[in-house]
Amino acid sequence: MGKLGVSLYPEKTAYEADVAYLERAKEYGFTRLFINLLLFGEPDPTHIERIKKTTIKAHGLGFETILDVNPRTFEVLGIKPQDLGYFEDWKIAGIRLDMGFTGKEEALLTKNEYGFLIEINMSNDNHYLDLIMDHHPRRSHLIGSHNFFPQAYTGLEEAYFLACSKKFQAYQLRTAAFVTSQQAEIGPWPLQEGLCTLETHRRLPLAIQVAHMKSLEAVDDIIIGNAYASDAELKQAASAFHAAVTPIGILPANDLTELEEKIILRSCILIEAIIPVI
């Protein structure tokens, strides 16, 4: 069984609100956390300490935290990619390389002495993963996750998503993808039209996205890309994710008779994970 995750953007939120969100997510069985550390401006020690405070708190709550970084992140922090000791006391599980290197560097990073996971971008149907494998990484510390896409009509098509995921499954690597809350409004960019991996998910209820992602069997972990999802969404997403049988969504016709509606409802196993789409 994979993990359910949430995302936080500490540069745009209050620490207390982030902690409250994590505590609610924990109640519903969420155990993974994505935090954006793509630092585009000048170094801000206060901002960095704020993120560190959040990752330490998340660890205490039982979350596995992955920091999203790129070459600019290392430049701003004044360190090199191999200097992962900088994060030793952040209580994180690993880092996600938003932009990759040549393959050799990623393989070497998986052998870091701190046990950090190295997560790479899955949304590329090319030979990037093969290049890393050519340099014999420590597979237990190499994982992947798809991108999320904030603008409508820029998300992945299902066939492309499956093709990219298959490459990682062939190497038996742990994987993840993003779904989007319909209530949340916080993400890394000013544009907010959802933060999902699959374009077909952009306007769907969160629980239906989770159920569909689960049914595709293409990734292990599912992460809500934007913050903050509502309590109802967290509960429904968790029900869909942990359901023994993959739940379905029901789209009733507008002209159903009362009898037809009763027949449909009686034909379904009425559990919380079966979410009517109204």
SSE string, helix = H, strand = E? EHEHEHEHEHEHEHEHEHE
Number of helices: 9
The main β sheet shows up as:
8 strands, parallel, barrel
Distance between the termini: 30 Å
> What is the strand content?
15-25%
Counted up, domains total: 1
Radius of gyration: 19 Å
Please tell me what the overall shape is. globular
Q: What value does the average pLDDT take? A: 91
In CATH, what is the homologous superfamily? Aldolase class I
Which structural class is indicated by helix and strand composition? alpha/beta
Q: Low-confidence parts, pLDDT < 50 over ≥5 residues? A: 269-278
- Can you tell me the CATH topology? TIM Barrel
Name of the top-level CATH class: Alpha Beta
Second CATH tier, the architecture:
Alpha-Beta Barrel
Helix-residue proportion: 25-40%
- Biggest sheet strand order reads 1-2-3-4-5-6-7-8
Number of strands: 10
